[in-house]
Amino acid sequence: MGVSATTHNKPVKPTGVTKRRSTLRRGSLRLRRTRSQNRQFHYTTPDGVTQVVKSNGTGPELLNDYTLTPSEFLHEPYPSTFPPGGVWPPRKASDILCALGTDYMDCVGSTCYTSRICTDYACTHTLSAWKAATSDWEQHFELRHTGSDRGIGVFTKRSFRRGDILGWYAGEIKPLDSIIGTHGGYLMEIELGDLTPRADAPSVYIDAKKKGNWTRFINHSCEADCVFRIMRVGGVRVMVVEAVRDVRGGEELSVDYGREYYGVETRLRCACGARGCVERKRVRGKGKGGSEVVGRWWGGMVCGFGIE
Ligand SMILES: C[S@@+](CC[C@H](N)C(=O)[O-])C[C@H]1O[C@@H](n2cnc3c(N)ncnc32)[C@H](O)[C@@H]1O
């Protein structure tokens, strides 16, 4: 998807004379334009017009990957759920989102739309294969403006069955204390180390505000058709989107952001319009600020360290 840089990354070799140098310059310009186009999201307006999702310089940039800045973790403590000797500070996302533990949770396998699940403890599935398998998302989903306060949402181009894994939540991996103030609902909290549920498990955010894939556009519904849950791809933990009921082609995908986000006592107003929408239960005058964290998902159980 956006990261098709391999094709475009070929160095353009200058071969000497002036005329050739001008070819190089044109080549470089073309290179930049193609890259930025690949990194943009497009959506359809209610009038059927295709538009680029506007960026004010801080995103959203289309990136079907995890990214991580090692220096942000320099002063973070070594996670208590990691065995001694792990890579710290993490150099890449798989160092910190490595799948650990005594019981091994299911691997999504190399492709998601079929929900092919791998239960082989020593499987060789890699995050790179997973990224490639999920890069054709536009064949299956489209971004469309809902024409309501919900803004842009994700709509299916085909049907899916309950239990299908539709994609994964990509973005920047960040320490919890690095996020200050409002964040617009683009944060996912994911635990580190052994995934056996533990109330005090250290965790990090997957932040899709500036960089992420199509799943960052999934809106909230009080009667959601999907959930986020933690699985693994080989030895790396991923937050997947799973259909919790059959979904017809053309339907909007949604998840439940949780009562801390759209609840009877939060400041934010839900516009999902579902019959069971929280707005129907709201007690007037009780609004308070809500949490900005979309959710906290306890995953299964895993083993293996630092594998990609
Ligand atoms: C993760 S983003 C989803 C993508 C977003 N609709 C967009 O256009 O970029 C979450 C934000 O979408 C909007 N949103 C999502 N679900 C909503 C709902 N049920 N009611 C009102 N606003 C919603 C809110 O502005 C929320 O902060």
Plain-language structure description:
Residues 139-258 form the SET domain. This is SET domain-containing protein. It is found in: Chromosome; Nucleus. Helices cover 12% and strands 21% of the residues. The chain is an alpha/beta fold. The chain has two domains: 1-38, no CATH class; 46-296, Beta-clip-like (Beta Complex). The chain has a five-stranded mixed beta sheet with strand order 4-8-10-9-16, with no helix packed on it. It has a three-stranded antiparallel beta sheet with strand order 7-14-13, with no helix packed on it. The two termini are 20 Å apart. The structure holds S-adenosylmethionine (SAM).
In DSSP terms (H or I, runs of 4 or more residues), the helix count works out at 4
What's the shape? globular
Q: What radius of gyration results from the CA coordinates?
A: 21 Å
Please give the CATH class of the largest domain. Mainly Beta
**What share of the residues does DSSP label as strand, in percent?**
15-25%
The largest sheet is:
5 strands, mixed
CATH architecture label name of the largest domain: Beta Complex
Number of domains: 2
End-to-end gap: 20 Å
Helix content range: 10-25%
- Give the quaternary arrangement of the chains: single chain
Structural class: alpha/beta
**Which sequence of strands runs across the widest sheet?**
4-8-10-9-16
GO molecular function, one term: methyltransferase activity
Keywords: Chromosome, Methyltransferase, Nucleus, S-adenosyl-L-methionine, Transferase
GO cellular component, one term: chromosome
Pfam families: SET (PF00856)
